[in-house]
Q: What sequence folds into this?
């Protein structure tokens, strides 16, 4: 069995510049993942086999990104009981990204795909970590620490502006 808990798949290697944000977040949380190309249209059999075997291989969450007529996340969701997070990608064959957003978002009743924002692969990584964190307190603690670091960063930005005399907000 593979040690990966999250499967990060994408329709093409041209999606990698976007999708690597999911991988980088998982890496920062020490969550084992795998990353590969699975195309719904150009490697349909590979998609079926990947989705049908993922759970038995130890994968607990799948992140699937695709651009254009983005059928990969929905089709993978139809072939597994694992949670699937979809990342719409504004790709070279995309009109303006809406094609991919709607292909991934507008799933029929019964087969959900948790769709993040256009090119929102980092949030996909965070959501995958949160799903795993619901049953793994070590991961949940790391997410808490991540949230605290974001809060501190925003408060530092606020203080920097306030110190320039641009606000007199009383904390
Ligand atoms: C989609 O077509 C892929 O997910 C990618 O976003 C887009 C372009 O693929 P390539 O032509 O770069 O392989 O299926």
A:
């Amino acid at each position: 069995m593979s040690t990966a808990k999250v499967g990060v798949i994408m329709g093409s290697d041209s999606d990698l510049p976007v999708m690597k944000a999911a991988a980088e977040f998982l890496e920062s949380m020490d969550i084992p993942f795998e990353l590969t190309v699975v195309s719904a249209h150009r490697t349909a059999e590979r998609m079926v086999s990947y989705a049908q075997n993922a759970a038995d291989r130890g994968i607990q969450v799948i992140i699937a990104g695709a651009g254009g007529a983005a059928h990969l996340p929905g089709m993978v969701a139809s072939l597994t009981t694992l949670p699937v997070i979809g990342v719409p990608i504004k790709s070279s064959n995309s009109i303006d990204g809406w094609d991919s957003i709607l292909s991934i978002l507008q799933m029929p009743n019964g087969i959900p795909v948790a769709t993040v924002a256009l090119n929102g692969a980092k949030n996909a990584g965070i959501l995958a970590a949160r799903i795993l964190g619901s049953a793994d307190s070590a991961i949940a603690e790391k997410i808490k620490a991540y949230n605290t670091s974001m809060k501190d960063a925003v408060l530092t930005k606020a203080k920097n502006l306030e110190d320039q005399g641009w606000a007199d907000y009383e904390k």
